[in-house]
Every structure is written in structure tokens, then in C-alpha cells.
Design a protein that fits this description.
Largest sheet: 5 strands, mixed
Helix content: 25-40%
Strand content: 15-25%
Distance between the termini: 17 Å
CATH architecture: 2-Layer Sandwich
Mean pLDDT: 90
CATH superfamily: RutC-like
Order of helices and strands: EEEEHHEHEE
Oligomer: single chain
Low-confidence stretches: 1-7
Number of strands: 7
Structural class: alpha+beta
């Protein structure tokens, strides 16, 4: 089993691995927009880097940013942690072949999809989308994504 080594990896909330390598396949645990070491739950644009805010559509209009900011910021954070984790395993985002995406509100999917398209420049991964009633550790969590990647050991 390969263990993570970079601090920007998705940190588990409990005692489980952020990912496991099984041969040439890498399976990521579900990732949410939380940094447990910092005690941070991403709740909006202010919780992500400024360059990411502009990239994903912060408008500067309070009403729009207040309504769309939480799901856009959480989407960016989760996908960025998936990117860092896949890179730690020796791959890149285009090695991800499957995503399972859990939403508290399926109406958020189009906003998430817009952010997802920034992270995948090649063929889109196979995808499952599910609506759930809630996620740990708080009601502020709007999305969780798990990923599977094919990253040959000889890559």
C-alpha cells in the first residue's frame, strides 16, 4: 500500500487512508471540503485561494456569490484535493476513470459540473451522481466525491 506524503492531500476525518493502490489501480476515499487539521470547513469563496475564486466564477455580486459560492468553492476544493492525491500516487487527473459524486441537493450538479470541466481536459470519467440526505461532519457539507484511477506502476 502506498501512503500519502503531501500536506495538500485530502486529510481523512478518521482513521482511514486517503487512498489505496491495488496494482495499477488507485482508489480514493470520499473527499469533502474539510481540512480537519486546520479545523476548516469550506463554506464559500473566502475559504479558497483568490486565483481559484476568479477561475470558478466569483462575480463580486453579494447575492450571486452568497448563493453559488458554497457549492462552487466546495467543488473546487474537493477536485483540487483529488488532483493532489492522484499526483501523489504518480498520476494526473486524466488517469481518473470513475467518479462517484454525492450531493445534498442535485440542483447543485450544474455548478459542480462547470468546475469539474476545469479539472478534466481529456475524456470525462465515467460518473455516478447520487443525492443524499446528509454528510459528515456537518450540514455545511454539500458534496462528497470519490475517485478511481488507473496509474500503472511503471508510469
Amino acid at each position: 500500500m502506498t501512503t500519502p506524503s503531501k500536506p495538500q492531500l485530502a486529510a481523512p476525518l478518521a482513521r482511514y487512508a486517503p487512498y489505496r493502490r491495488v496494482g495499477d489501480f488507485v482508489f480514493l476515499s470520499g473527499i469533502i471540503a474539510v481540512d480537519p487539521k486546520a479545523g476548516l470547513i469550506v463554506k464559500g469563496f473566502g475559504d479558497i485561494p483568490s486565483e481559484a475564486r476568479a477561475l470558478i466564477g466569483q462575480s463580486g455580486e453579494f447575492s450571486s456569490d452568497f448563493k453559488q459560492g458554497p457549492i462552487l468553492a466546495q467543488s473546487w476544493y474537493v477536485l483540487d484535493r483529488i488532483r493532489a492525491t492522484v499526483e501523489d500516487a504518480g498520476g494526473e487527473m486524466n488517469d481518473v476513470f470513475k467518479l462517484v459524486q454525492y450531493f445534498k441537493n442535485l440542483d447543485h450538479f450544474p455548478l459542480y459540473s462547470r468546475v469539474r470541466n476545469l479539472f478534466f481536459t481529456g475524456p470525462s470519467p465515467a460518473s455516478t451522481v447520487v443525492e443524499v440526505s446528509g454528510m459528515l461532519p456537518s450540514e455545511d457539507i454539500l458534496i462528497e466525491v470519490e475517485a478511481s484511477a488507473y496509474i500503472p506502476l511503471s508510469k
